[in-house]
Design goal:
Elements: H1 2-19, E1 51-60, H2 63-99, H3 108-121, E2 126-134, E3 140-149, H4 150-163, H5 165-170, H6 173-184
Antiparallel strand pairs: 1-3, 2-3
Length: 185
């Protein structure tokens, strides 16, 4: 009995000492390394209820090329985010529609429509902020934060369903729009 009591007290002490107070993690810095200030990394540069946001950077001897690289990187990051979000929403919507006891609903039409809408909406990306730096070696480093309106994406998806007769017949447009708007924001 005494052994159990001692073991229990040690366990409580061990748990208390592990969980008390914030842990201070130190990152070792190798000789010659410097901490890098991350640009466009604050909460105002992250996706929120209104926008998909991401940033990119590019380095080149020519500032125009550095800008092109940065913008392409940001576009690709947002495209990937939006594609995966729309695919997940369409898949979940299809499951929801099939689960209501009626006929099986195949979301392939909506998924294809979603890909098409995303591709056209990506042309509506807006530059939120940009910064350019000339580095010591003469090259240019360009940073850009871009955003895509979730509201515009929702409207475009709704309009695409209206225009595609086959999908319109198989999908409840209002139910999909409501579901899309709830989940995307």
């Amino acid at each position: 009995m005494k052994r159990i009591l001692v073991f229990g007290m040690l366990a409580v002490f061990a748990l208390a000492s592990v969980s008390c107070g914030p842990s201070k993690r130190t990152t070792s810095v190798t000789k010659g390394e410097k901490e890098v200030n991350l640009i466009f990394n604050g909460p105002e540069y992250r996706s929120d209820k209104k926008y998909f946001r991401d940033n990119g950077f590019g380095v080149s001897n020519d500032m125009a090329n550095a800008k092109k690289i940065a913008m392409q990187n940001a576009r690709q990051a947002i495209a990937s985010m939006v594609h995966s979000t729309v695919k997940m929403l369409v898949d979940n919507y299809a499951v929801t529609q099939s689960a209501d006891g009626s006929e099986y609903y195949d979301g392939n039409d909506l998924e294809v429509l979603g890909r098409t809408v995303v591709e056209t909406q990506l042309s509506g990306l807006e530059v939120m902020e940009e910064k350019a730096f000339r580095q010591n070696d003469g090259t240019f480093r360009y940073h850009v934060c871009m955003q895509l309106s979730k509201d515009n994406l929702s409207k475009a998806m709704s309009n695409a369903i209206d225009e595609d007769a086959k999908t319109k017949l198989r999908a409840d447009k209002e139910a999909f729009k409501k579901y899309f708007d709830e989940k995307i924001r």
